[in-house]
Amino acid sequence: MHFPGTGEAIGDVNGFGQEICNLCDNPWAPFPSRQGFRLASWFLESKVLKSQINESFPSGLGNSESVGYGSMYTLAKHLQELDLWGRYLQLFEGQVENGERTLSFFYRNVLSCVRYLLRKIALRDDFVYVPPRESNHTGQPVYAEMHTAD
What we know:
By secondary structure, this protein is α+β, with helices and mostly antiparallel strands. Helix content is 35%, strand content 9%.
């Protein structure tokens, strides 16, 4: 059975298209250059302490103008811009206690995540809106995926 309109995008997330176009103009965004991106990557992959990052610029490790940041604070601002979900889906913090200690965890609103995913044009061909009926060569029903059941 065919249902007209299934698989079409509900709409685009406001501002997301422009953000993608901006990335095409500057692939290192939000950093001004490849050098800034690579230095930030090295800081993160090497697990350099925040205090050591702050100390590295006055000691002459890099020119803050060419890399786009001169402290951990400004580097953190750039890293927040890299989180494409962050602008559209707010991250919440919760806590759970087990009697001995309190543990923090982070979560997002599930309905906002679903809305975001349904608006992604690139995913429209991968969504299943109606369970298809599949059968083998003799006409017997075939249940291959969870959404193919009756």
